[in-house]
Amino acid sequence: MKKISIIAAAIALCSCSATKTTDAAVDLNGEWDIVTVDGTAVDTTKTESRPILGFDTAKNTIYGCASCNSINGTAHVDAAKKTIKLSKVGTTMMLCANMEYEQKILKALESVKGYKAGKGCVELTNGSGKAVLQLKKQ
Questions:
Q1: Which of 19, 72, 73, 102 has its CB surrounded by the most CB atoms within 10 Å?
Q2: How far, CA to CA in Å, does 135 sit from each of 16, 64, 104, 106, 116?
Q3: What's the pLDDT score for residue 38?
Q4: Under 8 Å between Cβ of 42 and 51
Q5: ∠79-64-94 over CA atoms, to 5°?
Q6: DSSP bridge pairs for 91
Q7: In the beta sheet, which residues pair with residue 22?
Q8: Is residue 124 over pLDDT 70?
Q9: Rounded distance, CA 35 to CA 50, Å?
Q10: What is the 3-state secondary structure (H, E, C) of the chain?
């Protein structure tokens, strides 16, 4: 089972990263799997739950799971400028056996300022334009 999860993560990563980033518009609405954090693939065999982020741009909300705890907050998305302003982001406070990805995901979220579109994926970027989280549409 672990091998299948690792293979699935590798396929998801390759299918997204093999595509050149484009200037195409992207609809952030819906749920996205977090496939990389700071360039490192997420190994879902080492997480309590599948890490995801969801956006509802009409309600200016972000939600998801950082691999253990639930995430909720405000997300103001400016599609014309491809910027995201996250605020009031909070999580539940459960302690899980493996918090490695949880901490990395939450730290990366703190630095998110924008996004870049790819084919079937989105890179959330910091103020310098560096990808800190790579998301694949569910």
A1: 102
A2: 9, 12, 15, 14, 10
A3: 96
A4: yes
A5: 145
A6: 71
A7: 117
A8: yes
A9: 10
A10: CHHHHHHHHHHHHHHHHCCCCECCCCCCCEEEEEEEECCEECCHHHCCCCCEEEEECCCCEEEEECCCCEEEEEEEEECCCCEEEEEEEEECCCCCCCCHHHHHHHHHHHHCCEEEECCCEEEEECCCCCEEEEEEEC
Question: What would the pLDDT profile of 104-121 be if each residue is shown by its tens digit?
Answer: 999 999 999 999 986 669
* Type of residue found at 56: D
What average pLDDT does the chain have?
A: 86
pLDDT digits (tens, 9 = 90+) for 72-92: 999 999 999 999 999 999 999
What token pair was written down for 40? 């490192």
Which tokens sit at 86? 């996250």
Residue 96 is which amino acid?
C
Distance separating alpha carbons of residues 134 and 75, to the nearest angstrom: 17
54 with 77: CB under 8 angstroms? no
Instruction: Residue 21: count other Cβ atoms within 10 Å of its Cβ.
Output: 14
